[in-house]
Amino acid sequence: GDSVTQMEGPVTLSKGESLTINCTYSATGYPTLFWYVQYPGEGPQLLLKALRDKEKGSHKGFEATYDGKSKTFHLVKSLVQASDSAVYYCAGLGC
Q1: Are 18 and 75 in contact (CB under 8 A)?
Q2: pTM, rounded to two decimals
Q3: Residue 9 exposed, middle or buried by CB count within 10 Å (0-12, 13-18, 19+)
Q4: Tell me, what CATH number does 77's domain have?
């Protein structure tokens, strides 16, 4: 069936490192895709979303590009802060 697959779980980061979290999906058509972040002691909050193929979302230095051909929505940040250590969730509406 339709699904979203994310390889990484909690992320602990040091200042100056880069971050990539891989997200792939299996769905017919083009689902709406989301990245959520959950900081320690807090609830999940929306970080990025994309509704269509080739749409690039960016927020607070994070970027994710919706690629309908490879069915990916990878989260990337080139220079992270220690405060970016959190749990990151990929989700899809229509998956």
Answers
A1: no
A2: 0.88
A3: exposed
A4: 2.60.40.10
